[in-house]
Design goal:
157 residues; mainly alpha; 0% strand; transmembrane; DUF2752 domain-containing protein
C-alpha cells in the first residue's frame, strides 16, 4: 500500500504566517521614524562641523554614495532644503521615501496586522531598484569628480 499524497503547500520564507516580514517592516519603520526625529532634534551645528565618520572617506579621501546623507537629513530636518540637496542629492529623496514608508506601514498596520508583510514588497519594486542604481551611479560620479578635481559636484565637507 502506498502512502497518501498531499498537494504541496506554498510557504513564505518567513513561515506560514509571515511573522518575520511583519516584524522586519515594523522595525524598519521604527528605525526610520527615529532617524527623522533625530534629524529634527539634533542641533544644526552637528551637520556643519564634526569628525568624518565614513570609513571609505577616511581610507580613500573620496566620498562614498552615502557621504553627506546625515548632514543632508539634519539640514532638511531644520527646513534648509537647498543645503540638504548640496550635501547629497539623495538625502531629501531618501528622507521622503522613509517618511512615505512610515505612513504606508502605519496605514497598512491599522487595516490589519496580517497585511503588514505586504509593505516589504515595496522594496522589491523596480522603481526602488532604479533609484538605488541612480544613487550608486551618483556616488561613483561624485567620487570620480572629487578624485579628479573637476568641480562638477559641491565638495563634500
Amino acid at each position: 500500500m502506498s502512502a497518501p499524497t498531499t498537494a504541496p503547500t506554498r510557504r513564505s520564507a518567513e513561515g506560514d504566517d509571515g511573522v518575520g516580514a511583519r516584524v522586519s517592516v515594523l522595525i524598519a519603520a521604527a528605525v526610520g521614524a527615529g532617524a527623522i526625529v533625530a534629524a529634527v532634534a539634533l542641533p544644526r551645528s552637528i551637520s556643519t562641523s564634526g569628525p568624518v565618520l565614513c570609513p571609505f572617506r577616511v581610507v580613500t579621501g573620496l566620498p562614498c554614495p552615502g557621504c553627506g546623507l546625515t548632514r543632508s537629513w539634519i539640514a532638511l530636518g531644520h527646513g534648509d532644503v537647498a543645503t540638504a540637496f548640496s550635501y547629497n542629492v539623495f538625502g531629501p529623496i531618501s528622507m521622503a521615501f522613509v517618511a512615505a514608508m512610515i505612513v504606508l506601514t502605519l496605514a497598512v498596520a491599522s487595516a490589519g496586522p496580517a497585511r503588514i508583510g505586504r509593505v516589504a514588497g515595496v522594496a522589491r519594486h523596480p522603481v526602488v531598484w532604479l533609484v538605488a542604481g541612480l544613487w550608486i551611479a551618483y556616488g561613483v560620479a561624485r567620487a570620480i569628480d572629487a578624485g579628479m578635481g573637476t568641480g562638477w559636484f559641491p565638495p563634500v565637507t
